[in-house]
Amino acid sequence: MLYFPRMLDKIRLHTRGELAPDYHQNLGAQRSGDGMCCNLLRVEHATLAERVRAGGSDEEILEWCYTTGRRLNEGDVMVWNGFISKTRLERFRHSFPGGDEGETRYR
């Protein structure tokens, strides 16, 4: 599942005081990758952050999300991965000098 490990890493970094300040505003925000991922899993970001701070591997925490929220099926994961990869590419493309040329270069 794309993005999930990144979200957990951001929670871990934030807990240690090592998350770059640029990421603080959107950490867990509803209209961010964190919020969309938590919504898909039907878990609250604050509750997930508590679980991450308790320890465990990414796989264990994902299984906890499936038990606490909802279990994704193969189709859910496929749609999510397509969505989040397109979303991330669009943000990169718009911030890359040269606009659409960036998308072509990084396919």
Account of the 3D structure:
By secondary structure, this protein is mainly α. The protein has one domain. Helix content is about 65%, strand content about 0%. The chain has helices spanning about 5-15, 35-40, 45-55, 60-70, 75-95, 100-105. The longest helix has 22 residues, at about 75-95. Residues about 100-105 have low confidence and may be disordered.
**Total strand segments:** 0
Question: Structural class of the secondary structure composition?
Answer: mainly alpha
Low-confidence parts: 99-107
Percent helix, as a range, is: 55-70%
Q: Percent of residues in beta strands?
A: under 5%
SSE topology:
Layout (H helix, E strand, L loop, with lengths): L3 H12 L17 H9 L3 H9 L4 H11 L5 H22 L4 H6 L2
Short description:
The protein is mainly alpha-helical and 107 residues long.
Notable traits:
single chain; 107 residues; mainly alpha; 6 helices
